Amino acid sequence: MQLGLIGLGKMGGNMRERIRRAGHTVVGYDRNPEVSDVSSLHELVERLDGPRVVWVMVPAGGPTQSVVDELAGLLSPGDTVVDGGNSRWTDDEKHAEQLAAHGIGFVDAGVSGGVWGLENGYALMVGGEKEHVERLQPIFEALKPEGPYGYVHAGKVGAGHFAKMVHNGIEYAMMQAYAEGWELLEKVDSVTSVREVFRSWQEGTVIRSWLLDLAVNALDEDEHLEKLRGYAEDSGEGRWTVEAAIDNAVPLPAITASLFARFASRQDDSPQMKLIAALRNQFGGHAVESSP
């Protein structure tokens, strides 16, 4: 199958490679000419046979809207656009309507896997009409982890990004719980090896998880996280999750508290945020700030 892929950053570049390894043809475009296969979106579209499929992996908001606007003028009826970035689900509805006016299908795909996805596969949460989703099945199969899990057609347009948003909200709360436990263990004199306590939890405990494994990786690199500043950004989905909870009158005390904890990290050098910053760097390659 042929696929156009726009945005070849940390995730997009690895996705291109994983899809190619599965035997598909990927024509990639990025503003960085060193990683791009073509020099423009126009050339990307010209290189694909119809009906075309173009997957967008650029930042949410203005950058995604700009790409959708350009594709609306370049693609033909029967083509399909996939937004695999972290767009807000309400934007998906607008993009689907905009492209439908040109006879172009639209699918939203929440993608989780970070910098590890190339080897481990990406969890995919997809929204859109059945006919558009089914066209993309070979690409979804190439990207997802091996085995029966890691992919879901979650529902209508917007459902994929809504599911990914909630996934990221849960991720906030899980990371916060690990970080709070780590800080408490570090604080007491009786525990002399916090890193090894975390390592012992990796097998046989009810709190074992991939995030715990990544926490141990981070502590192996910097046992007391002394090289990091206790500062962690929020990428948007946590805020959107809390806003959706308010709109739907659903109580989310743990997720809301974890979001506010990140805000607190911007006021002081928070010990908890050192572990959260380390975890975000481990699974997503997110930037960290060094301790002064």
TrEMBL record:
Keywords for this protein: Gluconate utilization, Oxidoreductase
Molecular-function annotations in GO: oxidoreductase activity
A matching Pfam family: NAD_binding_2
The keyword Oxidoreductase is assigned to this record: yes
Enzyme class: oxidoreductase
Domain of life (superkingdom): Bacteria
Keyword Oxidoreductase: yes
UniProt domain 6-phosphogluconate dehydrogenase C-terminal: residue ranges: 160-287
EC number(s) reported in the record: 1.1.1.343
Stated family: Belongs to the 6-phosphogluconate dehydrogenase family.
UniProt cross-references to PANTHER family, sorted A to Z: 6-PHOSPHOGLUCONATE DEHYDROGENASE
Record-linked NCBIfam families: gnd_rel, PRK09599.1
Name under which the protein is recorded: Phosphogluconate dehydrogenase (NAD(+)-dependent, decarboxylating)
Organism of provenance: Streptomyces bluensis
